[in-house]
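Reader question, answered in our methods column.
A reader sent in the components of a multi-part assembly and asked whether the whole thing could be modeled at once rather than chain by chain. We filled in our standard form and ran it. Here is what they sent:
COMPLEX SIZE: two components
ENTRIES:
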Amino acid sequence: MHIKKFLKPKNFILCSFLFITACIEDAPLDSLSPAGPYARTIDELFWLTFWIAVVIFFIVQGALLFSVFYFKDSPDKPEPKQIHGNNFLEILWTIIPVIILASIAVPTVRTIFDLAREPEDALKIEVIGHQWWFEYKYPDYGITTANVLVIPEDTPIRLEMWSNDVLHNYWVPKLNGKRYLVPGQKTYLNLHADNAEEFWAQCGEYCGLSHSKMRGRVLSMSESDFDAWVINEQKNADNTLSEGSLAYEGQQVYLNAGCTQCHVIGGVWDVQGERIAPNLTHFANRNVFAGAALKNNSENLTKWLANPAELKPGTFMPNLELTEREIEALIEYLGTLK
Amino acid sequence: MTKIIEPKKQRNIFSRPSSEEGVWSWITTVDHKRIGIMYGYAAFFFLLVGGLEALLLRIQLSQPDNNFLSAAEYNAMFTMHGTTMIFLAIMPISAAFFNYLLPLQIGARDVAFPRLNALSFWIFIAGGLFLYSTFLFGTAGAPEGGYLAEEVSRLASAPNGGWFGYQPNAGLKYSPGTAMDYWAIGLQILGIASLVSAFNFITTILNMRTKGMRLMRMPVFTWMTFAVSFLLAFSLPIIAIALFFVTFDRQFGTTFFLTEGGGDPVLWQHLFWLFGHPEVYILILPAFGIVSEVLPTFSRKPLFGYPAIVFAGFGIAFIGFGVWAHHMFASAISPVAQAGFGLSTMIIAVPTGVKIFNWLGTIWGGRLTLNTPMLFALGFIGMFVIGGLSGVTHSVVPADTQQTDTYYIVAHFHYVLFGGALFGIFSGLYFWFPKVWGRMYNETMGKIHFWLMIIGFNLTFGPMHWLGLQGQVRRTWVYAEETNLGFWNLIVTIGAFILAIATLVFMANWIYSRRKGEVAPFDPWDARTIEWSIPSPTPVWNFSNAPEVKSLDDFWHQKYGEDEDGRAVRREGTDELLLQLEEEGLNPKEEIHLPSPSYFPVIMAFGLPFLGYAIIYKSIPLALIGVIMLLIGGFGWGTEPLEEEFESSEEEPESGESKNYE
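And here is the structure of the entire assembly that came back:
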């Protein structure tokens, strides 16, 4: 490639565009590869606007560059005509943009209301924002979980959302646009995934120290998988650990080190009222933890339990000064929570 | 200088400062030109600081999961970058242009209230220093109950709630420590500076125009100053009230924005953006004004559609108050509100388009001199159009819910505020360089600056569009490797360093040309407006005789007529006219009374930070110091004789402008 040519701004932008479209598939948060009807509607509207913008872009930049080259001063050029304006042109370039904008405005307004409407027979899920993780509740099934939102494929989902602390912004780019989570009031967002697939989610609104690590996963699965998941989630944790095993030791650490102050493991500790940290009853079934910023594996868990604030600045989980042995046992125990 | 009459020396506790050279003459000056220059240098200093902060941000983001900065440092840096660039760099650089040029463009000797002008400059300095003193005294930390692995460094002891300060995150519970108080009170102080100058400029434009300078003969830059002043006057009170609410919430336990106490965090968003959107036009309209001066001059054609450009400017300013919720399309607002604000946002594209087409009409058919100011003005059009078009995609609400809070938005507003406002400002800095310093800048270095800047700019902000669409959210300290955003982030960082190099070239050019540049000829650009009809550098007294203006672009029409084809023809005797103007400009015939310098604006301005510290540290002594300084400043100001008694004890208004209305 001629590097000089490449470096010209216009060429560069064009090349960037081609390059980017080539690697779109790889970006899990890509808003340009919709995987459901809501995201697709938005996508269509975006490209409509985009191509109109591209046309205007080339007209204006073309006129600009043409003027620069054609009307550039040279000694043999006569003094220019002193033209002060032209009313016809003024009216023309007022009216034409109005018409173009009107043609964007109509589908825009229609789509706004389409997206806001509650779908029929939608599965209702509550999303609660915390610094810095998303909590999910399924009121129909009595399930509470965190970080990974599990949904059935090809089914409309209605999210009812609020925040427990500051403003958050729930975003699954491949399924729909963003919606804020606000303390003290409810907001709504519809999701609908075509196929069984894993999606990435991310908090959009700056929400404090670990905002960038407030991530999420959305796992859409077939109807039967989803039903099986629901039945499993509704169970309490397996409490029949054999005394003396490492997992049993881990459970004792869990019960005595202070974890129960904030966490819940169903069936292990009778808890009254709300807890501020993620429900761990089926922790091992989730492939991520700590606001979906970390993969659920023993290496990450070891680092995390040794000093949570190291990985997630500002976290509300204290460094419990656990020994290596305690951490090892705890990880073993967490692994049993399926 | 000899023609300026010296005040009698007087022993009086309120005697006016009398130094004409040295530091004190600058500190006590009320000369709009000196104030303008000081505004310019101070703002440029903050521009460098804000740029340095941006470089730190870019180093951190140059690769995924980087740990060059801690989260606390990163958050402080992006908050300070935004706050600095908006309130301490672009706004005051615009103020520098207003101050220096406005009186010259309307043929006045100074602004309407010279001491108020000094006051607003010193309040700006006091507010900026107050805000930045957070790096020395401020504290920040994890939210109540949260933990940090390391101590908060000095770099992180700055405001960290974002320049938009969304509540309740920027409230006491989630942003403990004093840093956010420095932010809230610092902006409050800076707001006073802008309000004071807004009223000053409005009064100046309405009352100080020279004979024949009807409104529709004013240069477009003056018109845009007028529009910006109104925007400031109407939008700053909103943020002032909102910032008081924040300060009350943080200091005195009120709950304006706290749900626990029946408050509403969305209320802050509305108040902030009801100010924040007009603020965008406060930043961009001065650049519109500058390029509207530069393009006709170097096209050797009048501005195409002058009335349309003026009215479009005011249309933008007016509609600018009705689009604020487009910053909140994903927030808790109803679909009806979404639709309404989406439509109003589309409507604002119309007057913006009118301006762009008129600028194209101006250069169309001209004889374009492609020197540095012209290149920046043309670059301005090209870059601003991109920002404007991406702005239209935001008005498409559903698409915006994908784009909002991502780097797509960061790209958009940097195309508007950097490619737009800052390119316009650079254009103006080169254009009026000979006027201010009486020397020419170095054209080669200027062109190198332009090309480095336009390449670096597009390399920095172009890829951000795609990064945003690919899911990189804003204010993000780290991004995961799996998101595949690393490559373009690295390119962006490289672009940012090219911008830094470009800025160094600009500075080198400035420092060199300021001392060693060629001496500027009288009227170096064959310019159009009356500020070029006086010698450069501008004499202290501006105009030796109040000029009489007979038409728009009066100076041009003194030099050029039109032949039967409508082509410009230089009038006979123009060379003599220019010689005569230079001679007259340097040697005023009459005695000229200039506004006298004063200590009191400075004293008053520096009382305000003490009041700020007093609120933060709940300290009565500090409050007393602040109040006493304000009282001394106010009383001194009020009782100070308007002017020292002159040998010819003629009564003259302070600004000495009455002769304009003979």
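What stands out: Chain A has three domains: 31-69+85-117, 123-230, 246-335. Residues 37-70 of chain A form the longest helix (34 residues).
Send us your own complexes using the same form.
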